[in-house]
Structure formats: C-alpha cells, structure tokens
Amino acid sequence: MNTLTNKRVLLGVSGSIAAYKSPDIVRRLQDLGAEVRVVITSGGREFVSERSLQTISKNKVHDNLWDKDAELSMGHIELAKWADIVIIAPASANTIAKLCHGKADDLLSTVILATSATVMIAPSMNQQMYASLAMKENLQLLKSRNVIIIEPGFGEQACGDVGEGRLAEPIDIAQQAAELFLSNSLSGKKVLITIGGTIEAIDPVRFISNHSSGKMGMSLAHACIQAGAKTTLVVGSISIEVERRAETIFVTSASEMYDAVMNNITSQDLFISCAAVADYRPSKVSLNKIKKTSSIKSIQLIENKDILASVCKLKDKPICIGFAAETENLISNAKHKLKNKKCDAIILNDISNSEIGLKSDENEVHFISEKNSEKIDKNSKQIIAEIIINKIAKYFF
Ligand SMILES: Cc1cc2nc3c(=O)[nH]c(=O)nc-3n(C[C@H](O)[C@H](O)[C@H](O)COP(=O)(O)O)c2cc1C
Prior knowledge:
The chain folds into 2 domains: 8-179, Flavin prenyltransferase-like (Rossmann fold), CATH 3.40.50; 190-396, CoaB-like (Rossmann fold, 3-Layer(aba) Sandwich). Helix content is 35%, strand content 24%. The protein contains 15 helices and 19 strands. It has helices at 22-31, 42-45, 50-57, 68-72, 75-82, 93-101, 107-114, 127-131, 133-144, 170-179, 215-226, 254-264, 307-313, 330-341, 381-396; strands at residues 8-13, 35-40, 85-91, 118-123, 148-149, 153-156, 162-166, 190-195, 200-201, 207-208, 230-235, 247-250, 270-273, 280-282, 301-303, 319-326, 345-350, 362-369, 373-380. The strands form 5 sheets. Strands 12-11-8-13-16-17-18-19 form an 8-stranded mixed sheet, sandwiched between helices. It has a 5-stranded parallel sheet with strand order 2-1-3-4-5, sandwiched between helices. The protein has a two-stranded antiparallel sheet with strand order 6-7.
C-alpha cells in the first residue's frame, strides 16, 4: 500500500523562509504513517521554533553536531543509520551547495554524508536565486548522484517576487516520499478516470447538479500515478485541487463527459467511472434566464447516455470499474449494476451515512466483482483509493 507506515523519515530543515511550513510537513508525513525526526540547521532555527517541531514530531529536535550527550553514542551516525529516507525540506541554496561539495560542517550535512538512505530535497528560495546558473548546475550534480529533487512551485514569494522557487506543498512532499516505497503495480498501464459531478443547464444561470466533491476520484488519480500508471482525468464539477501529474480534460455536462471519454478511451487499459454523472438533463436549455413570471413551472427531462455502460460495450473494452452510490439495498443494487452494465467491478458506497461518501474526507466501500465481495473498512479516501487500486492490479492485471 502506498503509505509511509513503519517508515522512519529524517526531516532536515534549513534556512529558507519556508521553514515555517516544516511542522506541517511533519504532520503530513505522520498522516501517511511515518515516524519523523527532525534535524535543523542554525539557518532553519531563524525561521521556525524547535519547540513546535519537537511537539509535533514527538521527538527531540537535533540541531547540534557537538551535542555532548548525543555524540557519546555518535549521534550523527546513529541518525544517519536510523533513517529509511532523508528529506531536506525546505532546502536552502546554501545547504544545497554544501551537499554538492560534500561539506560536513554541521549536523545535517554530516548526516547526509553518513547515510545510505535515499535523500530527497525540496529547494525553496527566491526565484532569481533558483534561476541562477550555480543553482541549476548544483541541482544537476545532485541528480546525477541520485538525490531526488522535489520540484518547487511557481507563484508569489515571501519577498514579493513572482516566479519559480516556492517550496512544494507539504502534502506533495509527503506523497512523493511515499511513492518511493511503491509496488508499481500499474506500471506501464494507461488509466482513464472520470471525476466530480456534471452540471446540466436549465438556462444561462440555473442548472441541475449534485454534491460530488471529486475527492474520491482525485484520490484514485493519486493512487494510479503512484502505482506507475499513465493517468488521464475527465473532470467535471469539483471542489478540490487537480492532480497535476495527470493529463486533464475539463468538462461541464454529462454529454461533454461522454464525448471526452469516448474520444480518449482507445488504448486505455483501465477505465474508472467515479464521476457522479447526471442521469437526466433538461430537454430544452432556455437561451434567456427564465423569469419568475414565466409560464414554465416544470422542467422536462431527457435521459443522458450511460458512459460506463457505453464503454463496457466497446469491442476492445478496457477493464471497467464503476461506482455505485446507494442509499438502500446496497449490495443487491450494486450487484445488479455490475451485471446490467457488464463492468468488471463495482465500488459500492453507502451515501446515506454522512460520515462517509460524497463530500466527506473518509469513505467505507465494498469492492464487488463477479467472484469477490469485500468490505474495505472506513479510512481516508486516499487509503481507500490505494486499497482499491491494489485490488484492481491484483485481480485484473
Ligand atoms: C529573511 C531571510 C530569508 C531568507 N530566505 C531564504 C530562502 O528562502 N531560501 C534560501 O535558500 N536562503 C534564504 N535565506 C538565506 C539563508 O538563510 C542563508 O543562506 C543561510 O546561511 C542558510 O543556512 P543553512 O543552509 O545552513 O540553513 C534567507 C535569509 C534571510 C535573512
């Protein structure tokens, strides 16, 4: 499973302004199951309190190569051996340069030289510093030594500049670390996922839609990418960020979603229909806003094409996985859907329970195929997604 469960992460915090985000990085790593210890440089200490890092990591923060107690037992060597992975986040320009030269003049740089664990760095600095030739060459050198670079983001910086050099998001840092421990169960496979709700226009301002947030679909997208799949998303109405590593096609209505899926389904190995697609749409879309005084008092509906059933009917169909959001007769309704649509498996969720399902961060589902019916106990949607993808890989690939 794609988590950091039982993994020991040594987080190095160096002197970038973004060090104030390091307690959040600790949290995100812990959320994925890691035990985290922190080494901080003197530069890092200028931007974040050791007390915060100590409280959140629930471990002493290591800051001193010359710590008398620690060095009795060779503290820097112990830390270097303890770690399954070392992540420097944020990595300052100075610390990056020190890594390039193999310097060992503080605890962090010494640990890096002494560790055999994988090292990841998340550069964070002013856009001009990041764009400098020295930085580019330094990063290139580190890459050639198998240091993994967590690319910084683009945007407004603490100094007011706009450009590349912002620390990657803490959640992305944690997830990229988790990816290192993956099984690559969908390596080389192509996956198409529909995500979110559809919007069916009534007139230029009104529509019929649903409460889908897109969280479950986006968690599946993360899980597929982490499992090594080339992932394409067809995304309707969502209230979350889009997974940037996937190719994404944005749509509004069910008809647009149908076209986007059909135009991109050839050569896919796996199709996951996770979107909450409207079964019906208004038969007529008024060009003008319908007035309160209008004689129209009801909306006539016509049926939308069934995307999942249509993909299942294709001659060279991919493995097709559907979602069934049910409120009653859960298992029998899901089995009926499996048979009716001729898909390979149905992920059933009980949306009558507000703690799980549509807008919630958690879910509890049943994985139902012709041969298997397995409950996946309540957990975060990300963990549920990883379990689903593991099952798909195990049963169908
Ligand atoms: C206010 C302020 C903000 C800074 N922000 C950054 C930064 O975002 N990234 C960076 O690489 N250096 C930044 N620096 C410079 C580093 O803190 C400095 O190079 C320091 O020596 C780094 O030490 P370290 O790499 O041992 O942690 C900043 C300095 C100051 C005074």
